[in-house]
């Protein structure tokens, strides 16, 4: 009985390790294809907002990448997507709107989606704001998050290219671990 338990434990650790590595490799595939201006709509996925309406470093990195791209591609419009968490004073979308406007992005180019509470909802609710027939989009998020976001876009019949925002070193390990679990859950339940 004891040998069986040891073997089962070793097998479980081996399988878990294999899944961990496989999911890590899959996450790395999310950073392509890189946006080149062909999609006329971009979706910036929300992230934590600190007290006082200050974007977390993860969100700030997303917004910096988005602002630079929007300045280079004036024909692209952007949907800022993110609701208000229980511990947030305002919606993520409202913070993103202000940030992009402060970077010189015209208000008429920014569409606000402020009801979503998950990555799936970010994309689902944003899709409803796209002009009819629009299926090619650019997604902006941190590197670890893009594989799952692209998978969910595909589930929603959206073709997505991406803009990669750096993940802050202070949250990199935690984000990578959490994202593996979220990606596995997404693969199992479909969204």
TrEMBL record:
What keywords appear on the UniProt entry? Membrane, Transmembrane, Transmembrane helix
Q: Which residues form the DUF218 domain?
A: 41-182
Name the InterPro entries on file.
Cell_Envelope_Assoc, DUF218, Rossmann-like_a/b/a_fold
Q: Which Pfam families match?
A: DUF218 (PF02698)
Q: In the UniProt record, does the keyword Cytoplasm occur?
A: no
Membrane-traversing stretches: 6-23
Q: Superkingdom, according to UniProt?
A: Bacteria
Protein name, per record = DUF218 domain-containing protein
């Amino acid at each position: 009985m004891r040998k069986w338990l040891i073997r089962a434990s070793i097998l479980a650790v081996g399988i878990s390790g294999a899944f961990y590595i496989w999911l890590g490799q899959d996450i790395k595939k999310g950073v392509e294809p890189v946006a080149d201006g062909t999609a006329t709509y971009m979706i910036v996925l929300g992230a934590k907002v600190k007290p006082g309406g200050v974007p977390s470093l993860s969100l700030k990195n997303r917004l910096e990448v988005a602002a630079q791209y929007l300045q280079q591609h004036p024909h692209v419009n952007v949907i800022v997507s993110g609701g208000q968490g229980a511990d947030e004073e305002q919606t993520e979308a409202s913070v993103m709107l202000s940030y992009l406007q402060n970077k010189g992005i015209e208000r008429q180019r920014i569409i606000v989606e402020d009801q979503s509470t998950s990555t799936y909802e970010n994309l689902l609710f944003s899709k409803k704001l796209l002009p009819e027939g629009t299926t090619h989009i650019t997604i902006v998020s941190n590197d670890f998050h893009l594989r799952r976001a692209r998978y969910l876009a595909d589930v929603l019949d959206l073709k997505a290219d991406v803009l990669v925002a750096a993940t802050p070193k202070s949250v990199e390990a935690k984000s990578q671990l959490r994202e593996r679990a979220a990606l596995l859950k997404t693969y199992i339940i479909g969204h």
